[in-house]
What we know:
Elements: E1 2-11, E2 14-24, E3 29-33, H1 40-47, E4 55-60, E5 64-67, H2 79-89, H3 103-106, H4 122-134, E6 140-143, H5 152-167, E7 171-176, H6 179-185, E8 188-193, E9 196-201, H7 209-220
Parallel strand pairs: 3-7, 3-8, 5-6, 6-7
Antiparallel strand pairs: 1-2, 1-4, 8-9
Helix pairs in contact: 2-4, 4-5, 5-6, 6-7
The structure holds adenosine-5'-triphosphate.
Amino acid sequence: MLNFSQITKQYGSLTVLKDVSLQVARGECVCVAGANSQGKTTLLSIGAGLLTPEKGRVAKDGGVGFVPQENALLEELSVRDNLLLWYSACRKKTSLCFREDSPEARLGLSSFAKQKISRLSGGMKKRASIAAALAGDPDYLLMDEPFAALDLESKEEISLLLRQLASQGKGILFSSHDPAQIAAAAQRLYVLRDAHIRQEVCPDPALSLEERTRRIIELIGR
Ligand SMILES: Nc1ncnc2c1ncn2[C@@H]1O[C@H](COP(=O)(O)OP(=O)(O)OP(=O)(O)O)[C@@H](O)[C@H]1O
């Protein structure tokens, strides 16, 4: 379990998170949903160990990978060279990079291995960032706004990918304010507003995608 317990975070006099608690189990795809500036990036950064809260703690029973909203890969290096750097940083054998069972091969990046990051489409860039975050074989994957700035087709591909990673046993926590993609990807969602978790919701998988999307719009707005 990845367990955020009573997290409080302030920037000066601004309280961004107040006693926020949430859990993610392995095999689950969970969303922190909320409008802009509600503290989603702050919460995920705390989960990834990049920020320290004033109060509360994150307990984890495994490794955590993080995919930031902005591209964290080196634009002028190829996909392979970027991933080799990540493999080295994770102390993983570089000879495993792009092997058939590697995350990057399973993410469909093999035919793009020699391409510079700067030449990739938004969707492929996101896949490369996910592959980098998976290089250390984490048990949990945190993703900040994985659908931002993607076209609809790429958004749908990434939604499917998140569900697949969860079904392979990873615990996924992503942030988003995109109701259609939250409806497509999240088995559970936490609504973050005014520094608090306002609701925890499990969208009914028996409902149509349109109906689930409509209900999420009611919760978080468009
Ligand atoms: N380093 C910082 N110093 C001061 N204020 C900050 C800092 N980082 C974020 N904030 C403020 O904290 C609030 C929450 O920011 P955060 O980026 O966590 O929200 P968010 O929900 O991820 O927003 P978005 O969807 O726009 O990315 C915002 O008002 C932001 O301006």
